[in-house]
Amino acid sequence: MESENGLFYNYEDFTRIPTISYRLCGFDVLDTASKPRPIWMKLYHWACVCSHICCVWFMFRRIIERDTIGNNISLIMRYATLVTYVVNSDTKYGTSQQKHAFQRLNGKLAELFPKSKQSKIDHRINEYFWPRPIIVLIVVYYGSSAMVVVGPLLQSVYIYLMEQRFSYVHCYPYYIFDPEQDPLWQYFLIYTLEWLHSTLMVISNMSTDLWLVNFEVQICMHLDYIARSLENYKPSSTRDSKDRKFISQLVNKHNNLLELQEDINDIFGGSLLLSLLTTAGVFCTVAVYTQLQGLNLEGITYVVFMLTATSLVYLVCYYGEKVKTLSTYIAHAAYNHNWSDAPPDYKRSIMIIIARAQKPAELTAMGYLSVSLDTFKQVMTVTYRVFALIRQMIE
């Protein structure tokens, strides 16, 4: 249960990964007036935001003009992918701008986090710390996303080495660069704008979900602790004061967790709903685009990117499922533990826990769509059906 260096993790260790992830684009959800970001980081973040606005403006301009798109199915699919991904990323970025709500929720969970060594052992802190597969997923996601941006430059370098000419390929189709007429600095400006634009989208997409997962991990850890504590505790009529203190603490903690889960739903609910819808759209368009392009360097990077994006959706749905399962299990633990010798007040408190656990804590999108593994299955099913329909229409 101990970490590799023999120490137990603190709450700040749990938040370090999503914090570092967002700082890759110069943003920090926990940034306050007393602990501001460095000036260079703020400037870098605003460079990403301005580049993103500029690129999105050009994207919609090309879509409205339609001159550069025409009836090119491959290009249409690529624009559809970009539009859905922009909507998805901007929604998550907008969610991250609720900094006061983030900080309040983070402060409550930090206060609830066990402080003593024995309490950390009882809560199984280290078992809930970021597992290695999630770290690998984060690295692969950022790596595949970077390859989508760097790939055109590598392609240009390869063509130069093979054919002694530089092709000036860049990431997105909405910037038109003609090496015969346009100065060289425009190419580097375009590539810089596209890089910063991609940085904001990719990091917003990943980091907001990492914060969500971090919060849900905390909820899961505390729910698991409540269930195990109830299951293993044996009240006695001779320990009335101790028993009442024990059960009242669990009742209060259970109430706090239900309220904290509602806070999570309030913060992330809107982005979750739109994210599930747009993610399905991204999967469809990327799959069609990759099939049309074939498995070249661009196609391979898109496939890897799509697989990691799918894993990210699965991760959110998995923890949504786990919260619901552990919350439901509290009722079973309360009913099944040996409370026959407990005093009347203790039994009444047990009934309160059982009654409240009948409506389990759950991660929801806009309050009505439960986010679970069934949701993931439905998204993947709809995605495949739409992909098959689009492919049939093209053929």
From TrEMBL:
Main location: membrane
Family annotation (InterPro entries): 7tm6_olfct_rcpt
Keywords in alphabetical order: Cell membrane, Membrane, Olfaction, Receptor, Sensory transduction, Transducer, Transmembrane, Transmembrane helix
One Pfam family recorded for the sequence: 7tm_6
UniProt membrane topology term: Multi-pass membrane protein
Ranges annotated as spanning the membrane: 43-60, 134-160, 184-203, 267-288, 300-320
CC annotations in GO: plasma membrane
One Gene Ontology biological process: signal transduction
Lineage top rank: taxon: Eukaryota
GO MF terms, alphabetically ordered: odorant binding; olfactory receptor activity
Subcellular location field: Cell membrane
Family, as annotated: Belongs to the insect chemoreceptor superfamily. Heteromeric odorant receptor channel (TC 1.A.69) family.
Quaternary state and interactors: Interacts with Orco. Complexes exist early in the endomembrane system in olfactory sensory neurons (OSNs), coupling these complexes to the conserved ciliary trafficking pathway.
Name the record gives this protein: Odorant receptor
Organism: Drosophila hydei
Name of the gene: LOC111595704
